Amino acid sequence: MKLNTSSLNLPNMLTLGRIACVPVVMLLLLSDSRTMGFWAAVVFSIAAITDWLDGYLARKWQLVTVMGKFLDPLADKLIVMAALIMMIPLGRVPAWAVFLIIAREVTVTGLRSIASSEGIVIAASNLGKYKTIFQMVAIIALLLHYDYYWFFGLQWEIFHVDMQFVGSFFFYVSFIMAMWSGGDYLYKFYNVLTGTQD
Question: What average pLDDT is seen over the chain?
Answer without folding.
Answer: 86
